Amino acid sequence: MASETYLSLTPFLFAMANTVFSVSLATAGIFFVSLVEENEVIAMPVQRSIQGGCQCGRIRFITSQAPLDVNYCHCSMCRRATGGLFATLAWFPLEHLAWSSEQPAWFRSSKMAGRAFCPHCGTPLAMLYDGSNQIGLLLGSFDDPLPFAPTHHYGIEGRLAWVDIQGHLPARITEDDPAPH
């Protein structure tokens, strides 16, 4: 092993040689690392990447941006595109998303949106409204979806009466020309 010694003081405080680092979680996926050196604290935000992909592993995505929004969508197109009772989408600026392996295939699901999926295993991955600068990634395709709780329901006119999930959240109907959430 290298001559550097790692000492674990707590889950969020560690030391390497004579330098002490403090790591704290501020918001979903964003960590702050504080460097304590000679009684001087230097705080540096460090955002962990958010990664995910398809079931077979050929299509992967990565972003270092926290989601702008996370929602449930109950519209019939989301139900059919995912094969589930609703979709759970996390919205990111398109410019901050990278496909880190193969590109997904796209299906034109309506006159206003397309859906990304893996052409090898069929995993649904994303949706993109025409002309939008935001992409909705399906939360189930994230490596770690736990930190990203939905904040509202969308497309509630398609919500099945017996679906009982977080009914206390705000809800909206699908619009004819929806804006990114």
Can you characterise this structure?
By secondary structure, the chain is mainly beta. It has two domains: 42 residues, no CATH class; 109 residues, Metal Binding Protein, Guanine Nucleotide Exchange Factor, Chain A (Beta Complex), CATH 2.170.150. Helices cover 4% and strands 44% of the residues. It has one helix and 15 strands, in the order E-E-E-E-E-E-E-E-H-E-E-E-E-E-E-E. The strands form three sheets. The chain has a seven-stranded mixed sheet. A hairpin with a 4-residue loop joins strand 13 and strand 14. 24% of the residues are buried.
N-to-C span: 49 Å
Radius of gyration: 20 Å
CATH architecture of the largest domain: Beta Complex
What's the number of domains?
Answer: 2
Instruction: Please estimate the helix content.
Output: under 10%
Shape, principal axes of CA atoms: globular
* Broad structural category: mainly beta
Describe the largest sheet.
7 strands, mixed
Number of strands: 15
Strand order of the largest sheet: 11-12-13-14-9-8-15
Give me the strand/helix succession: EEEEEEEEHEEEEEEE
As an assembly, this protein is single chain
Give the count of helical stretches. Answer: 1
Beta content? 35-45%
Low-confidence stretches: 1-37
The CATH topology of the largest domain comes to Metal Binding Protein, Guanine Nucleotide Exchange Factor, Chain A
The overall average pLDDT, rounded, is: 80
What's the CATH class of the largest domain, please?
Mainly Beta
Domain CENP-V/GFA: 50-157
Transmembrane segments: 12-36
Protein name: GFA family protein
Family: Belongs to the Gfa family.
